[in-house]
Amino acid sequence: MESSEDFCFFDPTATDTFLLPQRRLGSVPNRLLHDLDSVETLKSEQSSGRYGLTSHAKRTKLLGSKAAFSSKRVVKCIYSYLPYEYALRHRRICTTFNEVLGTIPMDFQAHGERSVRLTKHIGGLTKPNTAVRELSLGCLRDTVRAVEMDGLCRAFENGVLPNLRRLHVELHPESGEVGVFRLLAALSTSPLSSLVELDISGSYIGQSSARKLSDVLCGNEWSGVKKLGIARNGTGEYGTKFLVKGLSSKEGCGRGLELLNMARNDIGKGFKTLPKAVGSAFRELRTLDISNNGIDADAVASASTECMVPLEKHSLTWLDASFNVMGDLGAKELVKLMFSFKTSLTFLDLAGLDGGVEFAIAISEAMGEGGFQVLEELNISGNSISRQGCERIMRTVGSCPKLELLNIRNCMLGDNGVNELVGGMRVGRLEALKVLNISANNVLKSLINVAECLKQGWCKNLRVLDVSKNAPTGEVKGGLWCWKHKHFTEGRLKIVEDEKPQSWRD
């Protein structure tokens, strides 16, 4: 949806309300007074199937005189409670209303039975509808079945949605790979020059058909796609290799991609070819999601061998490589491969890699070399970095002056590790920090030091502190709560805990 303060969107597929978009119109002729109505009076007569407009006198009373609709005024015209199929097919609505409606960008989202109705009406279009900009069909629970593909494919083949910018289709298992390629073939017959976002995640392509998908996506007709979602498709090792190769071709969309979502595809050793493509072919790539893909230490080692040396550059600003269990050495190798230079990353998620001290040392070295100068959010939870790893990170975290979120949950810090963190606060290395998560670290007494640190204003921008799932003694926990209520009664800091001490429960 386009980010404009003059445009907002209500779901038109909600059968209870049948809501349409609303937008401010800058120049409204007086003749439109007979065709515009307020949201309070324009209702859906679902029982009779008639959608009438209120009388001229009633509109004048509600909306004011005709002067209010002069070209010198900005009028907010709200169209609501009209079935979306009538907006699409432009029937039983007055001509002037259609002229206005045709200039308003519309986004349609439908799931389950609603998607059947929507595809049916789209397939029934006989002339291009330039207003539809986004089409989203299916979700995790209500995906698109084969029977629903007919109208959708017919619409694309007839070119009735020429201005479509975003397309998200999630197919049912019974449609599977056949449905995906049928849809892509229909799109290819009448290429959408305006299409910038294509998402076929969760469509059960499978490893065997990923090669065919790569051949399709390397065509020149997809060169305008900037965002590609192929997550949850089970492409596997070999399928991923073919996809990366196809996207990296000169004619493919990979060279102009800005977002690539490949999460939950069981990539495994298929990761081998991805870093090299990120550093060379995918020159515009800003966002990459490769989480939950079974990438292990061997896959990272193979990628390092493929690149010969650590990457010299990439354009990523957002990277999620979480929950790929690769062990301490694998996690260390990943950091050295991807972050041995000054990056543009603002978000980095390396949670659940099963890293240890060596992993923490590699992050510390990358920080010291200026690799994370613009980093704002860092998540390394679920890695056993312990006190030693925390100490090394605190030495160089000052090289991340914009760091606002630090998640070191379940990192086996203990009291000694948290004290190292407090030491970093005291010397001003975490001045920009707003959110800190140190939960599930078996912390006992060091929370008092954290409270004292905050009391002294050494981390004055902190707004959320998560200390849940630790095991502080009653004295320490009570002291922390007393300190909180004394110094942050205005609610400037939110402390997340498991349970209040008994004395505070009442």
Automatic annotation (TrEMBL):
Q: Which domain of life is it from?
A: Eukaryota
Q: Give the location in the cell.
A: Cytoplasm, Cytoskeleton
| GO CC list | cytoskeleton
What is the predominant subcellular site recorded for this chain?
cytoplasm
Q: Which UniProt keywords apply?
A: Cytoplasm, Cytoskeleton
Please name the Gene3D superfamilies in this protein's record: Ribonuclease Inhibitor
Name of protein? Uncharacterized protein
According to its UniProt entry, this protein's organism is Triparma columacea
